[in-house]
Amino acid sequence: DGAARGGQASTASVAVTLSRFSRTSGAYGFFTKRILSDGDPLQASVKPLDAGAAGALGGGIAYVWRGQHVLELTYVSEDESPDQLRASSAEVLPAIARELGERLPGSKEPLAEVQLLPQEHLIPLGVHYEGERLLGVGGTGAGALGHYRDGDRRWRVLVAIREDEQGASDLLNTLSRGGQGWPTPFKQRRMLRVRFAPEEDQKPRVWYLARRGNVLVGLGDDVFPAPSLVPSLVETASAAPEGAPREPGDELPDPDLEEHAKLRILSELTLAAERYAARKPVAEGAQDQVAPTH
């Protein structure tokens, strides 16, 4: 509380809410839900804040995640206009958020799934950690979804880690059954092509899914505007080796350059997943079936 304004004492204060979760993944999922609310990260009302393991700052509010905890700081003032409140909170909240973020227990390392998300073209604060319904399919368990943008082109990347290979295989089967029609296998590439329609008024979104060890990765269209990839990625898109024997389902569905670009990016993802799975790690949230409550 504090500074005098126009000869009168200010009634400004900062309310702090601390939420503790049973698992780190539950806390991070709650954090991403608070800052995105299932909306477009490009339209988010907050910006990144260097506090705790991850932070976000908005008009009159700040969020901090670290370990099993999420902090919510709200700047309150009865004698400031909305513009003054936003300006004052932008000055006051970051320092408080950083100080409290340093006091919270737990690692500052991102979740394993988040570490596997490509960083290039990732929208700031564009990661959503889903605890239960990946790609709108029930019974999938937890996973990280990253939103990407390059110019007017947009796409999403999915990473989910399970306790063992069987768990990741079960997840792949669940997702493939949750799509529209039969999934298309690309056997030489060891991946599936699945179509999803999250809402009745939305056109189907194409996803490419692959499992490597206990890790499932995917790349697909975004549900927000401009769900396509940049032409520049196409120039280095890789194709199957020449002369390799083909089986039914190996052919690409029409030589669409964007399809090749998606396959190239997913191929890079699968290589990262293979390296990770070879270490035999288990993600902290790998066995989460629902987001923990607090």
- With strands numbered from the N-terminus, the spatial order across the biggest sheet is 8-9-10-14-13-12-11
Helix content: 25-40%
**Relative strand content:** 25-35%
Low-confidence segments, given as residue ranges, are 1-7, 227-257, 287-294
Rg estimate, integer Å: 22 Å
Q: Work out the helix count.
A: 5
Overall shape: it is elongated
The oligomeric state of the chains shown is single chain
Q: What is the number of strand segments?
A: 14
Q: Would you tell me the structural class of the helices and strands?
A: alpha+beta
Q: pLDDT average, as an integer?
A: 81
Beginning-to-end CA distance, first to last residue: 29 Å
Biggest pleated sheet = 7 strands, antiparallel
Provide structural commentary.
- The protein is built from five helices and 14 strands.
- Mean pLDDT is 81; it is low at 1-7, 227-257 and 287-294.
- It has 294 residues and is an alpha+beta fold.
- Strand 4 and strand 5 (54-58) form a beta hairpin.
- The protein is elongated, with a radius of gyration of 22 Å.
- Strands 8-9-10-14-13-12-11 form a seven-stranded antiparallel β-sheet. The chain has a five-stranded antiparallel β-sheet with strand order 3-7-6-5-4.
